[in-house]
Amino acid sequence: MSAPNCLRCLVRPSAGIPVSAPRTVSPLVTPFVLARTAPFSTTAANARPKKEAQGKSDGGGSSRGGKKLQLGKFKKEKVADRGRTPLPGERKAYRKRITLSNDNAIPVPWLTDLGPADLADPRSSGKVMALPEEVQDQLRASEAFKATQCWGMFRKPAVLVRKETTDLVNRMEDAVDKKETLRLVVTGDKVTGKSMMLLQAMTHAYLNNWIVIHVPEAQELTTACTDYAPIPNTDPVQYMQNVYVLKLIQAIKRANEKVLAKTYTMTAHPELPQNMPANSSLLALANVAKEAEGAWAVFQALWTELTAQGANRPPILLTLDGLAHVMKVSDYRAPSFDLIHSHDLALVRLFSDVLAGGGAKFPSGGAVLAATSRSNAPRAASMELALAQREAEQSNKEKEKTDVEVPKKDPFFRGYDDRVEAVLRSVQVLRLKGIDKLEARALMEYWAASGMLRAMVDEKTVTEKWTLAGSGVLGEMERAALLTMRV
Amino acid sequence: MPPRLNIWSACSALSTRARAFARLPQPGPAALARGLADNTTSRLPESTPGALPPSMLPESEPAVYSSSENETAINQLRMIEYGLSSLDPTVEGHKYGMPELPLPSQKHAKHRYDSVITQVTRLLMRDGKLAKAQRDMAIILNYLRTSPPPKLDPARPLLPGAPPASHLPLDPVLYLALAIDSVAPLVKMRGFKGLAGGGKSLDVPMPLRARQRRRTAFGWILDVVNKKKSKGSGRTMFPHRVAEEIVAVVEGRSGVWDKRTQVHKSGTGNRANLNHMAIKGMV
User: Fold this and answer.
1) What are the sequence ranges of the domains in chain A?
2) Of A151, A409, B152, B198, which is least packed with CB atoms within 10 Å of its CB?
3) What is the pLDDT of residue B86?
4) Where does residue A439 rank: exposed (0-12), middle (13-18), buried (19+ CB within 10 A)?
5) For A407, which residue in chain B has the nearest alpha carbon?
6) In this predicted structure, what is the pLDDT of residue B83?
7) Chain A contact for B165 (CB, 8 A cutoff)
8) pLDDT digits (tens, 9 = 90+) for A280-328
């Protein structure tokens, strides 16, 4: 038997009020009685006008009438003063900012600036050398420095010249002598200095007046975070990324200003928004890109000019960091809602064609380098396999034996990508490992001379840090010696 | 839909294997015999019964070694025979020398960091994540190393005997310890319930030990830090806020100094309470 009264509120429900009214009842047909509150239904409470409409007199949460006991006569209202909220992108900019010098660090007297021939000279391997001011600006313009590297601890940015560095730079020089293109992938374990190797290659290129085009983060191209649009009259359809390309052109312009000003166009470019007659400087051509709208056309014109056969062009260095991101299907969608392969993005295709050995030939030779990343890398099974195969083939070729087994495809795995394999079929692979103890010693002496390592650098300390760092892995040595609580 | 959520990619993930299995080295007889202690039948490789290893055969001559190292070893054995210790470390030498004794405190695994650093790191720790706190501490020290030398405020003097400001950034541990020790209060107020009459508690100043003083001071610093806003984003923000506050303390800008003054003032005000009849024996 149901109670005649509502037990909660002791309000007697009148017979005329339905127990629950449907919410969807339109106001036109609402019965008159529904205007009063029905105790068993939340509908009327929900239908109540919002607080803003009721005005501020209603007060806070409880709307209980009558007297209230007020403790403390003058109660301060808590105002959370949050100050100015950061603008969009401001916090990220603070996180990503790059400091290249520390005024507290002691200047190292024996530190010499890198000259144009130093990085190719085997005698300078195992030495720490400083980057010249001009090159610093160029590297900064092309975003070669990363926020995770320890640039901000020393008086001026300096790099350790490794054996691998001189090896790589000599290979680059050989290729330029033969007017060929060196195609090479730098790979290795975490924090072994892969990005730093790219930076050193770029330093060499800047010092020798090459033209450098650097893609600092390959993921920016393929994770669908920048605009894209199909390029008309392409089959299969390719996509341009105008905003990114504009940024890239500006970076190229700032970093290679001197060289571009001395290089002149071979043909006129009537297709550009601003007419470019023949024999105008490439800097002027790059300056045409003012807006994202026509950036891809400008970039194409620039690229055709740079790779124009028979012209007197400086050598070109094309580098990309984070190779795995461009060796997979991208996150972009075609109008049919299919995922777009990274190699269908025009800029990526331009790079991968050169890496594959097809595509444009550099008139005075040059190099195309890519570095893999271990911390931020999607699975790219084909890339990993191809690199392992190339490495095994390389070591067999060097020893003139076949003792290293070339890894084969897993027959039960479907995730391989033929296009990626085709690109990486004939690249060279440079695997980075830990540095040796002599190099470690040179590095630690530099740290100690800068006042950042407060310890005597002797064989014992060097061996200790070298061992702690997993046989001299560079980043781990920094962690063990510089980024520790025992300074 | 991200490709990961695709049902077909889930199927392919089942058979993901990028390269062939590494071949294990052929297990030797020792490896086979290992772990078979309760197995009564030996699984050592079959050998013809009664066949002895060649070295045990009577016709085999012991191989003659003649090298200088061998000579030395034989000489050493002879010396042992005569009761002399031939393997004296002072004679033989060590690759990296003997450790100095007594061992310096830093060589002890549990005391490898400065005592202030150890204590403060544990105060920084949240949710028992010591490794994260240690990384934060390393970032704090790094911030102190790279920030410009502090401009000292003569109204807020640091501990007597502190090095000049320009020396501080290159010794971040000292920088941090100096900041904490300089704002650390000397006393705390202990309330004795109901002794002041009328149910009021009697505040009596009590001296603090060095560790307690540091804990209080760093607690105040952390209070300020937790109310501060980060400038940027990412994992370096919390340690950067702490480091900024440390710099503010050394430069005399921090509100922590006021807290210290307040505690000291009430300590001076209440010092007469030490002579209270009920307290005398207790303190």
Assistant:
1) 109-431, 437-481
2) B198
3) 66
4) buried
5) B19
6) 80
7) no
8) 999 999 999 999 999 999 999 999 999 999 889 999 999 999 999 999 9
pLDDT at site B258: 97
pLDDT digits (tens, 9 = 90+) for A368-418: 999 999 999 999 999 999 999 999 999 999 888 777 899 999 999 999 999
CB atoms < 10 A from the CB of A384, how many?
A: 20
pLDDT of residue A9: 53
Report pLDDT digits (tens) over A29-75: 444 433 443 445 445 555 555 555 444 444 445 566 777 777 777 76
Q: How confident is the model at residue B36 (pLDDT cuts 50, 70, 90)?
A: very low
Structure confidence by residue, pLDDT tens digits, A196-229: 999 999 999 999 999 999 999 999 999 999 999 9
Pairing mode, strands A316-321 and A211-215: parallel
What six digits make up the tokens of B260? 């210290």
Q: Which amino acid is at A16?
A: G
CB atoms within 10 A of CB B277: 7
Q: What are the domain boundaries of chain B?
A: 115-275
Sequence-ordered strand ranges (E) for A231-327: 239-240, 316-321
- Identity of the residue in A410, A451, A486 whose CB atom sits nearest the CB atom of B19: A410
Q: Is the dihedral of CA A144, A149, A155, A161 positive or negative?
A: negative
Residue A186 CB neighbour total at 10 angstroms: 26
Report whether A179 contacts A366 (CB < 8 A).
Answer: no
Whether the CB-CB separation of A454 and B108 falls below 8 Å is answered with no
When the pLDDT of each residue in chain A is averaged and rounded to a whole number, the result is: 88
Q: Which residue on chain B is closest to A381 by alpha carbon?
A: B18
CA proximity to A347, closest of A302, A385, A289, A380: A302
CA distance A324 to chain B (A): 15
Exposure b/e, A342-381, CB count within 10 A at least 16 = b: bbbbbbbbbbbebbbeeebebbebbbbbbbbbeeebbebb
Mean pLDDT of B56-73: 71
**β pairing state of A428-432 and A316-321:** unpaired
The pLDDT value given to residue A214: 98
- SS3 assignment, position A219: helix
Domain B115-275 has CATH 1.10.455.10: yes
In A335-364, the residues whose Cβ lies within 8 Å of chain B are 339
Say if the Cβ atoms of B17 and A99 lie within 8 Å: no
> Residues with Cβ < 8 Å from A226, sequence gap 6 or more?
A220, A241, A243, A244
- Give A85's contacts (C-beta < 8 A, 6+ positions apart): none
CB A114 within 8 A of CB A132: yes
Strands A329-333 and A316-321 come out as unpaired
- CA–CA distance, A157 with A131 (Å, rounded to integer): 6
Dihedrals phi, psi of A143, to nearest 5 degrees: 60, 45
Q: Which residues in chain A have their CB less than 8 angstroms from residue B141's CB? A: 485, 487
